[in-house]
Here is the input.
Amino acid sequence: MQQQMLLNGAALLIIILIAVNTMLLGLVVSRSFTKPLTELHKAAQALEKGDFSVRAYVKTNDELAQLGDTFNRSALALSKMDEERLQLDKAKTEFLSITSHELRTPITPLKAQLQMLQQEYFGKLTDKQKESLDVVLRNTERLNKIIEDFLEISRIEAARLKFSFRKTDLQEMVKETVRFMDGFAKEKNITLMASSNELPLIDVDPDRISQVLRNLVHNAIKFSPIGGSIEINTELKNDHIRFSVKDQGVGLTSDDQIRVFEPFYQVEGTLSRKHGGTGLGLTICRGIIEAQKGKIWVESKPGQGSTFYFTIPLTPVHEIEPIKVLFSPKIDIEKKIQEEFMNALGPIGIVEFNELRNKHALGKEDLYNYIDSLEDQCILRPQHADDMKKNIGKIFGEENRKEEIETTDEDTRGVAR
Here is the structure.
């Protein structure tokens, strides 16, 4: 019996030793696989966020090492492509700026000489000659306006947009703008009505704000019927001031509302074709407002007029960032956001997405606040709301929402901007 017990104990000990050795060997083998896979996974995540300098260091001398090698070559190729893209963007902006400036240089003396001819400085003109000069001068003015618009676009994209901040009475600035536009409005017997609540004196560039307001009022006059009215309202809203320009014009479809701030876009089937234009006016307005971290959007229905809104912060933004308005990755980002809305909210998601896009509220913080409101209304469960926030964060290249809120950086807005 004692011998049998000893044999059984020895057998059990041998089995335990074999099991331990097998487990240790399994751990070693498993680690030899999981460590390089983890390395590749981390590198792939960094690459997804746009870090093309990342490399995977896999030294297993097997197929995994070959995979790491392939990954590194791909990352290098993407890095070169990104560098070329940045150079192309810079070259495009510089080309636009230089070309616009060079085109503008001969326009000024050309216009001066034409005006001297029109005023018969060089001798009497026949009626036909005067008519011909009128046509040339009008087209010279139009060409000069196009060049000015391109210069402004190049400044926006290169972060060279100049702001001269000073304490400003915005109510008085609005009144001056209305007086300036009143002559143009009277040509169509249109009444301009301005209203405002009490506004604080704040540091802004009144010329830039007036430029945006004039453009919106000018468009409202163009697309309003004869004898109509336009309402201009200014009010204090929390940490910003909101302006609105409401007309009684032809209105915009939902698709037009989405695209109206895009460069060169002109609304089909309305008076826009009759009045012409480059389609850059609203794009420049968007660039000016977003350079100050404000928002600009439109609310409209076909046949019921339009209301254009824009906001400016109470605290000016002195460090101007470049804003892409001609060539922007906004469309790709918006497509991913739209898909996330549909996944999270079903068919109603596309409606909610379009409403936010119309208001240019597709920034990261805008979307996070919107998801919070859905959670507060019990439309989304806390877990689903958290998942949606994480997915939205990944679209903008953020893994951790907490870090995003701490930095409070703006996104795309314009994506979105």
